[in-house]
Design a protein that fits this description.
Number of domains: 1
Bound molecules: S-adenosylmethionine
Distance between the termini: 42 Å
Largest sheet: 9 strands, mixed
Order of helices and strands: EEHEEEHEHEEEEEHEHEH
CATH class: Alpha Beta
Shape: globular
CATH superfamily: Vaccinia Virus protein VP39
Helix content: 10-25%
Number of strands: 13
Number of helices: 6
Structural class: alpha/beta
């Protein structure tokens, strides 16, 4: 008998200690298996369509689509399944770079509405090469959308002021997040390719997910979002298509000191 259409896929979600749930599966299946209106913050750092295989000591993932349109349609299908998971107070952060962020913004305008756009965050970092033919590319793009402009939860992160007048004081962070990327010596490095720094995720989660909220990262890789979320006492849900990524994320989560559930 053919499977009924629109049945939620059966995903083997595993509890990793209190407050953390993980599964090895496609983002699309993960999103389809979760309940509508249950998530406070989706943060997703998918492949960027760099055209290369991303390799690290702990694993690798393919990052190539035949065309930009193919990538956008892959992304669109998954975002479309993910948006309904958000609570009315919820938000979505989509982390990409210059290759695809312009197209992703159009997709999110279409799925959520132009008036749901909150910020185009720039994560600026120092590492990497330069070119004699252009300005060196030293930032990623994080698109911040909300479900309801009047209701979304936000707590502005505070950062040290840089002006002489405000020396020693804190000020609200701007949309340019100047946070170092992980170098080879970084203690938190676990060898997953394109691992993001905990400092970045802690700032984003602290700003965009309420203290008792739930964060979902459908392409969690080494689990940076999940570790940052648990450290801040949020409940976290992560998926990744790669078994090694889920292994690394599980190890990071289980070695965390106990945090509130
Ligand atoms: C940019 S990396 C995420 C890195 C992560 N933020 C970290 O700090 O370690 C993208 C991840 O997406 C995963 N991925 C690729 N295609 C996927 C899919 N269809 N569903 C779920 N995960 C996928 C890859 O295995 C990879 O771990």
């Amino acid at each position: 008998m053919p499977a009924p259409i629109d049945t939620a896929p059966l995903i083997d979600w595993t509890e990793i200690g209190p407050g953390a749930t993980l599964a090895q599966c496609d983002w699309l299946d993960a999103a389809r298996s979760l309940g509508a209106g249950t998530i406070d913050l989706v943060y997703v750092d998918p492949p960027f369509n760099t055209g290369a295989t991303k390799r690290g000591e702990a694993g690798a993932f393919g990052d190539r689509w035949p065309t930009l349109d193919d990538f956008v349609s892959w992304l669109r299908d998954r975002l479309e399944a993910t948006v309904p998971l958000l609570k009315p107070t919820g938000s979505l952060l989509l982390h990409l770079d210059w290759r695809t962020s312009h197209r992703a913004r159009m997709v999110l305008d279409e799925l959520l509405g132009e008036d749901r756009f909150v910020n185009h965050l720039i994560w600026t970092y120092g590492l990497g090469g330069s070119s004699p033919r252009r300005f060196a590319r030293k930032h990623d793009d994080i698109l911040f959308y909300c479900v309801d402009p009047d209701a979304y939860w936000f707590e502005p992160p505070m950062v040290p002021a840089t002006s002489r007048r405000m020396a020693g004081q804190l000020k609200k962070a701007t949309d340019v997040l100047d946070i170092p990327s992980l170098n080879n010596q970084a203690k938190e490095r676990v060898g997953w390719p394109t691992q993001k720094p905990l400092q970045l995720l802690e700032m984003l989660i602290g700003a965009c997910c309420p203290p008792d909220g739930v964060v979902f990262d459908p392409c969690c890789g080494s689990g940076t979002t999940l570790v940052a979320g648990r450290t801040l006492g949020r409940r976290v849900i992560g998926s990744d298509i790669d078994a090694k990524a889920i292994g690394v994320a599980t190890e990071r989560l289980t070695s965390l000191p106990r945090t509130p559930s």
